[in-house]
Structures are given as structure tokens and as C-alpha cells.
Amino acid sequence: MAVIQCAEKCKFQNDGYCSLEKCSTVNSVNSSCPYFMPLSADNRDSLSQTSDTDKLK
What we know:
Blueprint: E1 13-14, E2 17-18, H1 41-49, H2 52-56
Antiparallel strand pairs: 1-2
């Protein structure tokens, strides 16, 4: 297992590290990471709307 730092707004980025478990299809040859997948608007919205109160339910 490798620890790869990542600061991209990618669906695989988790707490500053890449969480991609194994190599898959190359998505981009133009970015710094060939596996970069943009974080979708749905994911960003659901993360920002989660509150501590919701977690207690």
C-alpha cells in the first residue's frame, strides 16, 4: 500500500491523500494524475450540508 498525497478536488482524495485502492482506467493524460476524477456537484453539496445533528439521528 502506497501513501500518496493529493490536494486535488478529486473523488478519490480523502483527507489530503489518494484513496484509490487499485489502478483503473486512465481518465486524463493532461492532469498531474492519470486517475483524476472531478468531485461531482452532488458529492460537494451533500458533504457541505451534513451537520453534526444529522449524524446523531
